[in-house]
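Internal tracking record. Fields below are filled automatically when a chain is submitted to the structure queue. Please do not edit lines marked as system-generated. If the sequence contains nonstandard residues, flag them in the REMARKS field before resubmitting.
Queue: standard
Priority: normal
Entity type: single polypeptide chain
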Amino acid sequence: MGEPVSWSEMRASDGDRQRVAERLGAAQADGRLSMSEYDTRLRDALAARTYGELDRLTKDLPDPTGGAATPEEPGQGLADQRGGDVAERTSGCPATPPKSDLRRAAEAWASVSAITFTIWLIGFVTGGGASNPWWLWVAGPWGAVILVMALSGAGKRYSN
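SYSTEM-GENERATED OUTPUT FOLLOWS
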């Protein structure tokens, strides 16, 4: 075996790259990165080979665990000064938690249902012959899928 490799030269995994990509997405959603800067950093994150390359992409962003960003010591990079590893440091949640997939689906369902109901109601009130509540064919099956998702626990975001 050869000389030990420094932390910043160690190979990053696909999971490490994905966590950094998620962190960059959260920073862009918070307004910390412009769309152009986000696109550039995301491309670099997905092409990164080492922890050092990933570290350079997030070093100017706040600590995702909610604490203040800490200065880094040589060779430490993404490793948290409290002893955390890359996964711990890069998988933290942004200050405001993102909406769950279930909530997004329910909001979309409610919006579309309200629009289709309104269109049907206008036709019904104006005598356009729209007595058949066709909007239920849009709202019903979609609502049933969302109900099954809610009861089964699908669509929730899990964060460590």
